[in-house]
Write a structure and sequence with these properties.
Helix content of chain B: over 70%
Number of strands of chain A: 0
CATH topology of the largest domain in chain A: Rna Polymerase Sigma Factor, Chain: A
Structural class of chain A: mainly alpha
Oligomer: heterodimer
Largest interface: A-B, 48 and 34 residues
Strand content of chain B: under 5%
CATH class of the largest domain in chain A: Mainly Alpha
Distance between the termini of chain B: 168 Å
Number of helices of chain B: 6
Number of strands of chain B: 0
Order of helices and strands of chain B: HHHHHH
Largest sheet of chain B: none
Radius of gyration of chain B: 58 Å
Chain lengths: 196, 160
């Protein structure tokens, strides 16, 4: 059974890829909607846009379900569609103009949202330090290049393996490692800057 | 020789289990360990944070599924009228094509020889009509006229 909070699914819950066209599509939506929404939210930083693109992702998958030949896992296929949707989203000239103008979306920053989540495991001082560091990672991730941000979020927010990321983005594993290394170097630099 | 791990080795230790030599160095080198831990702990918290940020109650997911299903249904139903309209237009075009008044069969233009033959027949008929009109006796009595002509000529010859 799917974990309601994380949307993580056991392997046996993933529908047989070869019979996707015959699957009850509602079941596929039910199994993967949390994960797709989470990825889109991390990349877009906009809950409404993430919700809309989650719907669009499944609509696009539904239209193309007959062409799915099972060369990749269903979740990899869906993640690829979602990532392509985010690229289309950012490619929009109008949105790009406004983002450049204001440098950041006028929506509530995810790092700000993160600060609202209590964590009972740490002392208040340690919580504060950790929240600041997590917020610094979000901000640093927002300043990465699109490719670096995608790879970084898929690895460290979604906990995907390098092979899964390579399959999702249709790149070599070496390319994934290169993007990850540059992303981590950039984030480390900003963390050091934020800590001073 | 650089006694510390390279930046790539430090970064790689964050996305995969470090190899034996890298793991050994991290165990023995406090500087490299500090450098890695500077980002390792926040990254773990970052992952938990991203999972929590996307957590929604079941109502949210149900509503989202309902919207997806309704949009799929809407697009499916849009497909049927579209097909129906295509069929209607196709039938109209077919009907127009089928009901279009057929052209009268084209009469082939007479050839030159046919034309000459027709003119000869007309001329022969004209000659025959003219001959009939000019003759003093009907055609049916022509043999009798010839017989009378021969009898008269014989009688004139004997009288001489």
């Amino acid at each position: 059974m799917a974990d309601i909070v994380t949307g993580m699914l056991p392997i046996e819950a993933v529908p047989d890829a070869k019979s996707l066209a015959e699957q009850d599509f509602n079941q596929i939506v039910r199994l993967h909607q949390r994960r797709i929404y989470r990825i889109l939210l991390c990349v877009l930083k906009d809950p409404d846009a993430a919700d809309n693109l989650t719907q669009e992702c499944f609509l696009r998958a539904y239209r193309k379900r007959a062409s799915f030949r099972g060369e990749a896992a269903v979740e990899t296929w869906l993640t690829r569609i979602a990532i392509n949707l985010t690229r289309d989203y950012f490619r929009s000239k109008r949105r790009g103009f406004w983002q450049k103008l204001f440098h950041a979306p006028d929506r509530q920053e995810l790092s700000d949202i993160a600060e609202q989540i209590p964590d009972g495991k740490l002392s208040s001082e340690a919580q504060l330090v950790e929240r600041e560091r997590v917020a610094a990672i979000w901000k640093a991730a927002n300043r990465l290049s699109p490719n670096q941000r995608e790879v970084f979020l898929l690895r460290f927010a979604e906990d995907m393996t390098l092979q899964e990321i390579a399959a999702t983005l249709d790149v070599e594993i070496g390319t994934v490692k290169a993007h990850l290394s540059r992303a981590l170097s950039g984030i480390r630099t900003r963390l050091k800057g934020a800590g001073q | 020789m650089n006694p510390h791990l390279s930046e790539f080795e430090l970064n790689a230790s964050l996305w995969e289990e470090p190899s034996g030599s890298v793991a050994g160095h991290l165990t023995s080198c406090a500087d490299c360990r500090r450098e890695r831990d500077l980002i390792a702990a926040p990254l773990a918290a970052f992952r938990d944070d991203s999972q929590q940020l996307a957590a929604r109650d079941e109502f949210f997911w149900s509503a989202q599924r309902a919207r997806i299903e309704s949009q799929i249904a809407a697009r499916s139903s849009q497909g049927i009228p579209g097909l129906a309209w295509s069929m209607v237009v196709g039938l109209i075009v077919l009907g127009v094509f089928l009901l279009k008044p057929a052209k009268p069969p084209a009469v082939p233009a007479p050839t030159y020889s046919q034309s000459i033959r027709s003119q000869d027949q007309d001329f022969a008929l004209l000659v025959e009509v003219e001959h009939t009109v000019n003759s003093q006796v009907p055609d049916a009595l022509a043999p009798a006229t010839l017989l009378a002509y021969e009898m008269n000529r014989t009688a004139l010859t004997k009288s001489k």
